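The authors assume throughout that readers already know how a fold can be written as discrete tokens. The format is easy to grasp once an entry is in front of the reader. For illustration, here is how one protein appears when written out as sequence plus structure tokens:
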Amino acid sequence: MPSLPPERVPIVTAILSTLSVAFVFSAAGGYVPSSVLPGAPSAVLDAIPTVNVLVSAVAIATIVTGWRAIRRGHVRSHRRAMLSAVGLFVTFLTLYLYRLIVTGGAAAFDGPAAVYRFVYLPILIGHIGLAIVCIPLLYYTIGLAASHDVASLRETAHARVGRVAAALWITSFSLGIVVYLLGRVVFG
């Protein structure tokens, strides 16, 4: 039985998207004081980027699994995989924002200025931009799933928007892994 009235999906999507993006920009902009969070040993803080790369890789696999499951008509497997992917995204974002707030900013890029300007920065901007675009798409597809039973969900934009969201989401996670490799492995 649906838990959200279908007519409320757009407004719930707009509200949750606005709040989420505002919180992320507040944290990234330094408006969330580190004193509101418990501290962590430097080893934990240093491990977060690597853990997030692993989370990203598992999320990509989970999204692909969910996508393949629904193409085969396995609705339960699709739902489990996509909800797992959302959980992984929340885990990634929580760890990233925690480290960002506690350390007072993003890690510096230690590579050559030309690589930073023409390779690293465009990839980073693409990663962040796609992640931001995915937020309302994810809320919308989840809202549609929560507001319709399986039979009537086929009559909504869930599949169409979900395909776009999944493709952008996979791309964003992949670009995040490239950012990590450039900043921490190649030029770390």
Notes: The two ends are 51 Å apart (CA to CA). The chain has one domain: 13-186.
